[in-house]
Write a structure and sequence with these properties.
This protein has helices spanning about 10-20, 35-50, 60, 105, 210-225, 235, 240-255, 335-355, 375-390, 475-490, 500-525; strands at about 65-70, 75-85, 90-95, 110-115, 120-130, 140-145, 145-150, 155-160, 160-170, 175, 180-185, 190, 200-205, 225-230, 290-300, 305-315, 320-330, 360-365, 395-405, 415-420, 425, 430-435, 440-445, 455-465, 525, 530-535, 550-555. The chain is α+β, with helices and mostly antiparallel strands. The strands form seven sheets. It has an eight-stranded mixed β-sheet, with helices on both faces. The chain has a five-stranded antiparallel β-sheet with strand order 10-9-5-4-11, with no helix packed on it. A four-stranded antiparallel β-sheet has the order 1-2-3-12, with no helix packed on it. Strand 18 (about 360-365), helix 9 (about 375-390) and strand 19 form a beta-alpha-beta unit. The chain is globular, with a radius of gyration of 27 Å.
């Protein structure tokens, strides 16, 4: 991991290397998807037992804590450490970070009854030999076989552990030791699914079959709230350069582990200074811009459903993405309700990430043929109404239609060039552009490695950002071509340009994953105590909004979770939505 730039905490590495069998579950079925998903669930549960419940007494033995994040207070997230459980009722005690919150509610970790029957609110603290000051558990760790404490200058120094005690600030800094305590209870109790753990699941597949891959992705990423990374053993074995395969996996891991806290990206994107801010794309980086890519996939044969997926960029470099996914009646046009939900979710995630709303929208719509261009105005009307409702004011919109599948021709260079080895280039190079009218162009973002290069056609159906505003340049055709081409290089899972825009490529990939799992979702399935079922009301029972498919979630007791609310977003992850990652 370190060789390929993935910064995994050494504590996790040391534990994982020595106890890999304790957090791993082996698949024993015979190509059965249900058995495979059960294997993933068991692996996650084993990891929780090891890290959260300290089943092997690793943290108790080394006088340390497992540090992570938890979800409290209406999906707000807090940094925390998991305290060793005192009972096995499925709940865990937490010590929360209080520095940026209300100290009265976040500070205390225990409610203690002393031997003289007095009750105190206290916080667990650590005593060290090097100083008389108590150390907060959030500033204390066990690494490389020794304890370390974080000092005021944010550096970690080796220390000698002495013991634990409890600080009672309401009693003038009273310190309590274990011998003073009659009984104690946790102030903050949560269930394990309220803790942000694990961050990712590594899955080694026996082959590259799509059915198993699609179900693993949908169930782990979107219903378990956990990222997943698949690797195929036969593919790895036949690689001549296995290190390159490992590097590609590491690149994907870096992208998937990014959160709003580290804001990690695989690489930075800087403009040439003529437009775009530092780290931003041309034009996109000049002002808060919401870039959205929408793709559609349709069921085959008698299937009456279409899956509409959207990916949206949360930063000016278009490297941090979030998503939404909806199911509608089979149609090439996005319904009004789905379009409004896409815009609502995208603006909410953008505000969470940036603490302010967008000032303009750049919308890429994939999968619309020439015959449906007049219907694009209906989609734009829904888009405009939803944006104005969310932001309380109208903002300019640019609507670009992408045609990646409808083209029946190839492009070859008119003038022969040679590469650095002296061999002729028979394909167009990356970034080749051909204008085909005042409002459209062909772009080959990915140079052809095999066969002939396939272009993508972009048609500007509406451009309200054409004219400059203040110090911001207008979205001219040249600016649109430039930022579209640069976006194609910002595919977080690869180091080269991709043929389609990353948002469109991710959207279609997610759509196919969900489409491949619709049968499983309609039949109903269970995941970590939640019952999940896709409910599809009959199409003749009401208007379009009333007949939209939605997810029905049930708790462990079988009761419907929030029966008054219909969850249309198929990938709305409970307690993970605000991460916007």
């Amino acid at each position: 991991a370190e060789t390929h730039g993935v910064d995994i905490p050494r504590e996790v590495m040391e534990i994982g290397e020595r106890n890999l069998d304790l957090i791993t579950e082996h698949y024993k079925g015979q190509d059965d998807v249900g058995d495979a998903l059960d294997t993933v669930a068991k692996a996650i549960q084993r990891a929780k037992e090891f890290y959260l419940y300290d089943s092997q007494n690793f943290y108790r033995k080394n006088n340390s804590f497992f540090q992570t994040y938890c979800f409290k207070e209406e999906r707000e997230e807090f940094e925390c450490v998991v305290l060793p459980p005192t009972h096995k009722d499925g709940k865990l005690g937490l010590l929360l970070d209080y520095k940026h919150y209300n100290q009265d509610t976040q500070y205390f970790s225990h409610r203690i009854t002393t031997r003289d029957d007095n009750v105190h609110n206290a916080r667990l603290m650590v005593k060290i030999k090097e100083t008389d000051s108590l150390i907060d558990p959030l500033d204390f760790r066990f690494r490389d076989g020794r304890h370390e404490a974080c000092r005021g200058d944010n550096t970690w120094k080796p220390v000698t552990f002495v013991g634990m005690c409890f600080l009672c600030p309401q009693e003038s800094g009273l310190e309590l030791n274990e011998r003073d305590i009659q009984s104690m209870e946790f102030v903050h109790l949560v269930r394990d699914w309220e803790i942000d753990f694990p961050s990712i699941v590594l899955t080694y597949k026996p082959d590259d079959g799509k059915p198993l891959y699609n179900r693993i992705k949908v169930m782990t990423n979107h219903f378990g709230g956990i990222q997943s990374q698949c690797a195929v053993q036969p593919t790895f074995d036949r690689q001549r350069n296995k290190d390159q395969y490992a590097s590609n996996i590491a690149t994907k891991l870096n992208a998937k582990l990014s959160t709003i806290y580290d804001k990690a990206v695989s690489w930075t994107t800087e403009s040439d200074g003529s437009s775009g801010g530092e780290g931003g794309l041309p034009w996109v980086g000049e002002a808060p811009t919401l870039v959205i890519g929408v793709g559609m996939v349709h069921g085959m044969g008698y299937s009456s459903k279409s899956v509409v997926t959207a990916y949206f960029c949360l930063d000016s470099g278009c490297m941090r993405l979030s998503n939404s996914c909806f199911v509608q009646r089979k149609s090439d046009i996005i319904s009004e309700g789905v379009m409004k939900d896409i815009i609502k979710v995208s603006i909410e995630h953008y505000i969470i990430e940036n603490n302010h709303g967008p000032e303009r929208i750049l919308f890429y719509r994939d999968g619309m043929s020439d015959g449906h261009f007049p219907r694009a105005n209906d989609e734009i009307a829904s888009l405009r109404a939803a944006a104005e409702e969310q932001l309380q004011s109208p903002i300019p919109i640019t609507f670009v239609i992408c045609q990646s599948q409808q083209l029946g021709f190839r492009m070859v260079p008119s003038v022969q060039t040679f590469n650095n080895r002296g061999k002729p280039n028979t394909n167009c190079l990356s970034g080749t552009m051909l204008e085909c009218g005042p409002n459209s162009f062909y772009l080959i973002a990915q140079g052809g490695m095999k066969g002939t290069s396939k272009p993508v056609k972009y048609i500007v159906h509406l451009n309200e950002n054409l004219n400059p505003t203040g110090r911001h340049s207008g979205l001219t055709m040249q600016n649109l071509i430039s930022c579209t081409n640069q976006m194609s290089w910002n595919y977080p899972s690869a180091s080269k340009a991709v043929r389609e825009l990353p948002m469109i490529k991710y959207a279609k990939k997610l759509g196919n994953q969900v489409l491949g799992s619709l049968m499983c979702l309609e039949a109903g399935c269970h995941w970590f105590g939640k019952g999940i079922k896709l409910v599809c009301p009959p199409e003749d029972t009401g208007n379009e909004e009333e007949t939209r498919p939605y997810l029905e979630l049930r708790n462990a007791e079988g009761a419907i979770i929030d029966p008054e609310h219909r969850q249309h977003n198929i990938v709305d992850m409970p307690f993970r939505n605000h991460l916007a990652a």
